[in-house]
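Data deposition worksheet. Section B asks for the primary sequence of the deposited chain exactly as it was used as input, without tags or linkers unless they were present during the calculation. Section C holds the resulting structure in token form. Section D is free text for depositor observations; keep each observation to a single sentence. Incomplete worksheets are returned to the depositor.
Section A, Depositor: J.P.
Section B:
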Amino acid sequence: MSNLTSHGPNGEVVRLESVSKVYYMGTQSVKAMVDVSISFEEGCFTAIMGPSGSGKSTMLNLLGCLDRPTSGKYFLSGQDVSNMEDNELSAMRLRRLGFIFQSFNLIPQLTVAENIEMPLYYMGWAADESKSRAEQLAAMVGLSERLDHRPAELSGGQQQRVAVARALANDPSVILADEPTGNLDSATGAQIMDLMADLNSQGKTIIMVTHESHIAVYAKRRIHMLDGRIERIEEAA
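Section C:
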């Protein structure tokens, strides 16, 4: 595989070129994305918005190398990943992307430290280096006192903080967040968004799906989708 550390031109970390995605269910075809072209600069904070069925989740799945476009090209850190084999896509996900999910997706049997370390385990990090990295990230998200706790012993907000730390473990090029505050009360959701805004101010690229306008205001750019197409793009003042 070619160099995974390269970035696209002009600080561009992600680019979609005329990307369409069609799902087939029996004889029916559903156009989930239609001829979408857009780029994301390194260090941007973008919210993808739209009603159910607008294509925002499909876009996030494609950006996360969890699915492939039916047509068009997807460039991640300067590499065309559109037609990569499964093992190559897995390597890109592991090294280049961090994921934050609405449902946290923590492993209940593992401690906070072990959940944060999970990506590093798959990357082959030494145990002592992995442990040190987990402690550093737990401190960053305010969970130093919870390293040996399991998810069931944490509040929803604390679980999402663990998920944020895990997403940062591999120092990803892009953090992809899918409704990151969807299972949280408004005050806890605001804390998580403050944390993500702080990460962005440190240079992290964040692409987030949300249907909540009060969450989208944290982003510097808002992409509104409708019927699989980009309807409009708003840039923060």
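Section D:
Residues 1-10 have pLDDT under 50 and may be disordered.
The first strand starts at residue 12 and ends at 25.
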